[in-house]
């Protein structure tokens, strides 16, 4: 007689995702036989990478001394604040000098000509502009030749002349397209109508030896990812690095706000708990719970009530994070964002350190499909775990590892791993000097996703292992 596995490890039916009651042998909705579902493994292991058996973790975590919060995260930079280059790598030319206030007015549009439609957006990289900016045809603007015997045309009245627009003040935002017009409060240029890049369209942050980059991608109208990175110190002075990456659930209300709230809450919790002596794995568990509370709180805000339609869900996101110390690597996650381990010695095998909370992963775990079949299904990326007020049951996953060599930890959303799914593919995409130049490495990985199609928002954080001493950073 076959023995029923512990059903507490399966909260939803692997076939139809209907919630289950403890002790159920068959799904009440579809009749699926739950005895074929393997029991979930214990969730807080300490594992060795490459088969090296770690010594018992008998480290006494002392009570923290008074701390002023070492290593506050560096500010996030918007794309407009960073120097740009052209396709050949040369610096962009400086913007043209602003026209003086007394410059003659530009010729008015011909009668009947219509301005660009206000709903057309121009802030999507990689897509052709519908209304490219061109110099006026000299045949249309040149003065007509005088006709013999005809009196010259009278000068237009002064009242009919349109004054030239004044150059914007230095303190005002200037359009990134025409480099002359003011940017209105709605984010569009008053001169040419171009939409300006938003702060979260492309974000980069470097904090000590770790770095993260997030990009909107080429197909989405906004960036619904968010991240938090920072460095701190354990009570004994040993360095610790922290990275949190969140991916908003697009089918939910306010996914961008959910990911931002979750990443901030989790990052602040970790950076506050580690200096007090909390074990990194316990700190990661507590950080996920804090992120969940932050996302749940959004469901009660008036903004959600105004925006939420009957067919939409409450604000929701996924979360994945990593903590790196001198000899320990801790990961935590809810959802389908991932952590990869890439050794500095590329002859050693890389590894994926997280398991997706997704339909495909459940099918593989239940033995109903192999991995290739499951991820080829259109339901593959339907998540079965997330942070949000409408989540069935929060099940934070945490695990700790003791790598036996130096390497780099890759924390990313599916916007990246969709283009480098296996550990071997991810290791091939990671630059060889990623541990020494994490910001450059993160930029390269985001570029890899954009070159692959950029169908989703892309966010990645890189953490060197072991954690370098305080003050180390990118070359």
Give a structural overview:
With 475 residues, the protein is α+β, with helices and mostly antiparallel strands. It is 18% helix and 17% strand. Strand 3 (202-207) and strand 4 form a beta hairpin. Helix 2 (255-273) runs antiparallel to helix 3. It is globular, with a radius of gyration of 28 Å.
Summarize this entry quickly:
With about 475 residues, the chain is an alpha+beta fold. The chain has helices at about 140, 255-275, 280-300, 300-305, 360-365, 370-375, 415, 425-430, 440-450, and strands at about 45-50, 75-80, 200-205, 210-215, 225-235, 240-250, 315-325, 330-335, 340-345, 350, 385-390, 395-400, 405-410, 460-465.
Distance between the termini: 63 Å
The radius of gyration is 28 Å
What's the overall average pLDDT, rounded? 76
Q: What's the SSE pattern?
A: EEHEEEEHHHEEEEHHEEEHHHE
Choose one word for the global shape.
Answer: globular
- Contiguous helical run count: 9
Unreliable stretches covering 5 or more consecutive residues: 1-8, 53-89, 101-142, 156-161
Estimate the helix proportion, in percent. Answer: 10-25%
- Tell me the total number of β-strands: 14
Give the strand content.
15-25%
Question: Given the helix and strand composition, which structural class is it?
Answer: alpha+beta
The largest pleated sheet is described as: 7 strands, mixed
Write the layout of secondary structure elements.
Elements: E1 46-48, E2 77-78, H1 138-141, E3 202-207, E4 210-215, E5 225-233, E6 239-248, H2 255-273, H3 280-298, H4 302-307, E7 316-324, E8 329-334, E9 338-343, E10 351-352, H5 359-365, H6 371-376, E11 387-388, E12 397-402, E13 407-412, H7 414-417, H8 423-429, H9 438-452, E14 458-465
Parallel strand pairs: 1-12
Antiparallel strand pairs: 2-3, 3-4, 4-14, 5-6, 6-7, 7-8, 7-11, 8-12, 9-10, 9-13, 13-14
Helix pairs in contact: 2-3
């Amino acid at each position: 007689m076959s023995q029923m596995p512990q059903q507490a490890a399966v909260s939803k039916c692997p076939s139809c995702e209907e919630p289950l009651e403890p002790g159920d042998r068959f799904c009440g909705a579809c009749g699926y036989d739950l005895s074929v579902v393997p029991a979930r493994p214990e969730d807080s292991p300490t594992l060795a990478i490459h088969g090296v058996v770690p010594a018992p973790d008998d480290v006494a975590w002392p009570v923290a001394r008074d701390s002023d919060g070492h290593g506050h995260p560096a500010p996030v930079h918007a794309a407009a604040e960073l120097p740009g280059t052209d396709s050949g790598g040369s610096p962009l030319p400086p913007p043209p000098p602003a026209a003086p206030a007394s410059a003659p007015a530009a010729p008015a549009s011909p009668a009947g000509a219509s301005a660009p439609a206000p709903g057309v957006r121009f802030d999507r990289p990689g897509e052709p502009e519908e209304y490219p900016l061109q110099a006026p045809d000299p045949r249309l603007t040149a003065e007509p030749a005088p006709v013999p015997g005809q009196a010259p045309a009278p000068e237009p009245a002064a009242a009919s002349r349109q004054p030239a627009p004044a150059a914007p003040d230095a303190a005002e935002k200037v359009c990134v397209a025409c480099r002359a017009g003011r940017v209105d409060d709605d984010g569009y240029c008053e001169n040419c109508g171009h939409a300006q890049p938003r702060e979260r369209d492309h974000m980069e942050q470097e904090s000590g030896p770790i770095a993260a980059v997030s990009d909107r991608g080429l197909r989405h109208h906004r960036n619904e990812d968010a991240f938090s990175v920072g460095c701190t110190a354990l009570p004994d002075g040993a360095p610790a690095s922290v990275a949190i990456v969140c991916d908003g659930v697009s089918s939910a209300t306010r996914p961008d706000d959910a990911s931002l709230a979750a990443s901030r809450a989790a990052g602040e919790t970790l950076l506050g708990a580690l200096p007090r002596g909390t074990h990194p794995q316990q700190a990661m568990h507590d950080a996920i719970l804090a992120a969940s509370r932050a996302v749940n709180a959004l469901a009660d805000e008036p903004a959600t009530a105004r925006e939420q339609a009957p067919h939409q869900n409450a604000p929701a996101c996924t979360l994945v994070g990593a903590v790196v110390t001198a000899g320990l690597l801790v990961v935590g996650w809810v959802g389908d964002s991932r952590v990869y381990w890439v050794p500095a010695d590329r002859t050693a095998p890389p590894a994926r350190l997280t398991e997706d909370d997704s339909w495909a992963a459940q099918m593989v775990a239940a033995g109903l499909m192999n991995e290739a079949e499951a991820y080829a299904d259109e339901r593959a990326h339907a998540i079965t775990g997330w942070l949000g007020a409408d989540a069935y049951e929060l099940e934070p996953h945490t695990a700790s590892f003791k790598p036996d060599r130096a390497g780099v930890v890759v924390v990313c959303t599916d916007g990246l791993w969709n283009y480098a799914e296996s550990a071997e593919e991810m290791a091939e995409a990671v630059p060889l000097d990623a541990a020494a130049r994490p910001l450059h490495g993160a930029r390269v990985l985001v570029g890899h996703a954009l070159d692959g199609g950029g169908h989703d928002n892309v966010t990645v954080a890189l953490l060197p292992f072991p954690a370098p001493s305080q003050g180390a950073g990118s070359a």
